[in-house]
Amino acid sequence: MLINEDLHQYLCSKTDELTEEWYKTLDKNKEGVYGTTDPWEVKKLKEQNHGFHKHFCSMFEKEQEDFMMEFDEWIAEVTNDNAHLDTPLPSVIEEFFRTQIQYLELVGKFAVKNKDKVKHEQVAVWNKAIVEVISKIIQEYTVKSMEATSKRWREQEALMDQISAPVIRLSENTALLPLVGEINSSRSEAMFENAMAQATNYSITKLFIDISGVPAIDTMVANQIFQMISGLKLIGVETALSGISPVIAKTAVELGIDFKDIQVYSTLPQALK
To answer: What does the buried/exposed string (b/e) look like for 20-43 if buried means 16 or more CB atoms within 10 Å of the residue's CB?
Structure first.
């Protein structure tokens, strides 16, 4: 039987000691959270480690389903911690294995102290359970960490897309949208939404869109620009397109892109006259 109140109490009494021993033997030269020297970060790291132990020792008190459900909260908290997200995953997994060794050693000590009532078969059951639970925690942590990392990348990309297409006010009712670099589908969508939102917020009546910093144009980019111009027109914003290079002009002709209903200028200064 896995549940054992005596073992549970014994392990719970060791949680502070486990954390201090773990941090004392931690390789401080590691990248990320484990190498921090900031007192506040060290305190937080120890608290997170101690939280692990408080949850883990309850595996000998609760049914595994309930135990893992509660442990998911700890995993979610740590995988959404920026310091842990900035730490290489192999380093985190290594610390889980070091913690596993701590528990196997503690169970051994408990068995020696209670050798009159703890059989070798029972110790084997406990050790097997510890290894299996650590394995599940590592798997769950890995999945949640990858999800959190992907989410952060998406948020950063969205922010970069927004920053890379700023609407700059030129006067009370006019503004400039300078586009620089390659435009992909995600960036063009963010560009469209940002231009519409800021044009509305700033009460813009005319927006100059300069594409002199865009190296190339294809059908997708052209369609996105035209959709943005059409959308702005619907909310009462007049647009002017400038910075069409000879390369882009040639490509536009080859693609059959029609600029006849759009104010087009070769340079931004010409458009601003």
So the answer is: eebeeeeeeebeebbebeeeeeee
Q: Give the number of C-alpha atoms closer than 13 A to the C-alpha of residue 39, restricted to the C-beta side.
A: 0
Cα–Cα distance, 179 to 258 (Å, whole number): 20
Rounded CA-CA distance 175/208 in Å is: 6
DSSP letter for each residue of 89-101? HHHHHHHHHHHHH
Residue where the block lists tokens 């890995």: 142
Between CA 99 and CA 104 the distance in angstroms is 9
CATH number belonging to the domain at 168-272, selected among 3.30.750.24, 3.40.50.720, 3.40.50.150, 3.40.630.30 = 3.30.750.24
Say how many CA atoms lie within 13 Å of 176 toward its Cβ: 16
> pTM above the 0.85 mark?
no
Cα–chain-centroid distance for residue 209? 32
Model pLDDT for residues 30-70, shown as the tens digit of each residue: 989 999 999 999 999 999 999 999 999 988 887 777 788 88
CB 216 within 8 A of CB 181: no
Superfamily for the 5-160 domain: Globins (1.10.490.10)
Nearest to 102 by CA among 29, 11, 177, 176: 11
The torsion angles phi and psi of 14, rounded to 5 degrees, stand at: -105, 5
